[in-house]
Design goal:
The protein is mainly beta. The chain contains 1 helix and 9 strands, in the order E-E-E-E-E-E-E-H-E-E. Bound molecules: FE2/S2 (inorganic) cluster.
Length: 122
């Protein structure tokens, strides 16, 4: 039911093996793949602002109308001065490796509202 997704909200579902997030953007419904195109974080735990969805893990942004990746991951702004040298080196390595992780746009699904139900075409 459409009323299970509050305005500005998201709801994760599984449909025939597909992990999908239904987004309610100002009364318009969109369906996108649940997993981020960076490192598979669950996008329903991110934030939705209009048609822009921000990943909860590294803050990549997606357009929910077409799945386009609008920005890549944002490196964590963690001061190495407050960490032990071992942890600081670890975080430095993680930051370097993040540059090699590919960023992909995400899949969208045709979605329509009919008699109060959200219909999704796979
Ligand atoms: S997992 Fe989504 S931006 Fe990294």
């Amino acid at each position: 039911m459409a009323d299970k997704v509050a305005p500005g909200g998201m709801k994760a579902i599984e449909l025939e093996g597909n992990e999908i997030v239904i987004c309610n953007s100002r009364g318009n419904y969109y369906s996108i793949q649940r997993r981020c195109g960076h490192m598979n974080a669950p996008l329903d735990l991110g934030t939705l602002d209009g048609i822009y969805l921000t990943c909860p893990m590294h803050c990549a942004q997606f357009d929910i109308t077409n799945g386009e990746a609008l920005s890549g991951p944002v490196p964590a702004d963690i001061s190495h001065e407050i960490m032990s040298p071992v942890l600081g080196k670890y975080m430095q390595n993680i930051g370097m490796l993040m540059n090699y992780v590919r960023m992909e746009s995400i899949r969208t699904f045709e979605t329509k509202l009919e008699d109060g139900w959200v219909l999704i075409a796979l």
